[in-house]
Design brief:
It comes from Rhodovulum marinum. Belongs to the UPF0386 family. This is UPF0386 protein EV662_102308. InterPro entries: YjhX_toxin. It is a single chain. This protein has 85 residues and is an alpha+beta fold. It has one domain. The protein has three helices and four strands, in the order H-E-E-H-E-E-H. Strands 1-2 form a two-stranded antiparallel sheet. A two-stranded antiparallel sheet has the order 3-4. Helix 1 (5-15) packs across helix 2.
């Protein structure tokens, strides 16, 4: 599956244990996101457009209002990076 470089980087961090925290408007739509690595650093490559594309493809999901994490499909779609090999 074709995944852009930014989507690949975000999915890789989520597969390693990161999470995407979100803020909602009054109407329920997501207005702002922040992607954290497992070390607690903020990932700047994760924009709202990248987030929406990953969610549309079902590579990330949230359970019971918790932060978004990589789904099983997302983990399978991510390519191996140097620190994963």
């Amino acid at each position: 599956m074709n995944i852009s470089r930014h989507e690949q980087r975000v999915l890789h961090e989520l597969a390693l244990g990161g999470a995407i925290h979100h803020d909602r408007c009054e109407n329920g739509k997501i207005r702002a996101i922040t992607c954290f690595t497992r070390e607690g650093h903020v990932l700047a490559d994760c924009t709202l457009n990248v987030f929406l594309r990953l969610r549309k493809r079902r590579f990330i999901r949230s359970r019971n209002g918790q932060p978004y994490r990589a789904s099983r499909q997302g983990i399978q779609a991510v390519r191996a990076q140097l620190n994963q090999r």
